[in-house]
Each structure stands twice: as structure tokens, then as C-alpha cells.
Amino acid sequence: MIINIKSYFDIESTLFSGQVFRWRKIDDWYYGIINDKVVKVKQLDNAIEVHCDDIDEVLLSDLTNKYFNLDLNINKIYNQLSKDEFIKNSIKKHKGMRILKQDPWECLISFICSSVSNIKRISKNIEDLCLNLGDNIHLSNYYRQSFPKPKDIIYAGPDLLRELKFGFRSEYIYESAKMIESGEILLDKIYELPYDESLKILTAFPGVGDKVANCVLLFGFNKLDAFPVDVWINRAITNNYLGGGKLSAILIRDWARRYFGDYAGYANHYIFHNIRLSN
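^ thats the sequence. predicted structure below, dont judge the formating
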């Protein structure tokens, strides 16, 4: 089916900017999993073409629009963020990159895996996890695996995770799965909570510090004022805005959330993606 898009959308930068790790490009098509369904998407002029088995077009349209955040007025975001030449340049280079509305559970585990890692390794870790513990799903003759549920990870145990080379993250993932399966933490409740309360809940998971929690809030819960601070963002903000001195990640995060406002997360991701491609 064809879905028309009213404003800027760049599928390549959206899917390969380090916010999600399971999409694959084959020729002009992008293959991924949304809500345990294999989909393929192709970008057209002012539209995208989407295919998925066993789902009617109304549901597929809703699923796609929500996941890619296509109803968001991205021009409004650009107007609000364009406060200086540094951020304007990042937006200009990657115009149309959108922040996805991912499944929070998968997003949480993905960014627990991001500690002391890189995009290539995270992608392999997550794919290996799905290959071993997920259910087989397909689109025609293209087969993938769903993301495992917390109970699947608990059943497998940390030993399998270590065999899959998750290293010190194995216990973090296993214990996080137990916390969710037991109901100790209810991820769905985070949607309705303000930023500070959400951050407090997420940092209760083992292996989740401020940066990972902000990534999950931004990419998993669509809290667009979240602002993850890694080494690159730290350097970019201090050098371009705060005089180049050595500052804590928390101070930088708080300053950036005040300066960029409700869409600080968009500023963050455009700066991050631009720096990553420049290095």
C-alpha cells in the first residue's frame, strides 16, 4: 500500500542513525519488524510503499504512521530548534530524519547492549538474541525472528546470553527481564509519567544509567525532551555552546533540555548522527 507523507521524511537516516538495530536494506527496500510483524518499506516521492502479510490496510497504515511518527509536524520542530548555525547545519544535512516510536522493551534491551559497544556490535547482539529466542515470522519467503519476551530470556538464563557474547551485559538483561516479568516495573506506566519520574524508574534497571535511560525515553517512549549524553554529544555541546570546559553529563543534559526545549531529543539525535557520519 502507498502512504502519502505531508512533510519531510528520510527513511535511510531514520533507520540507520543508531536509534534502532534490526532493519536491513535489500535493493530499494527496507526490511524490519514492527509489532512482531515483518514489513518492507520503500521510499517514494512524498510517500512510502509498505507491505506486510496478514494485516488489513487500515491497520497497516496506523501501524506504519505510528512507528515512523509520520503525523508529527516536523517543520514545527525545525522552526523551534533552529536557534543557531550549529544545529541548523545538522538539520540541513539530515532533513527528514525522524525519531521512531519503538517497542519500549526491545528498546531497553538494545540500549543496555549499547554500553561500551558500537552500532555494528549492538545489531549483531540483538539479532543473535532474536535468532535463538524469538519466534519465526515472515513476509512471503523472507524470514526473521520476533524479539523475545522477558519470560523467554528468563527461561534461557544468563549462561546462554554469555554464550551469545553479551558479556557483562548478560546479567543486566536477565535481571531486567525478571523485574518486568514479576511486575516490579511496569513499562507501560512510563508513558504517562513526567520526565523526572520516568528517568528514576528506568535507572532502577541494572546497567541503565542516565544516558541509556534517556535513549529509552526518547526512542521507546517518544519523550522528545529527553537528551542522552554520550562522549560525542558531551564534546559537541561543550565545544559549541558552553565554552569547551569539562562538564558533567547531567549538567550538559539539563542545559540542553532548557535550551532546546520540548524537542531537545530531536536536536540531540541530529547532532549525534551528523557527528557520527563526519568521523
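The first helix runs from residue 11 to 15.
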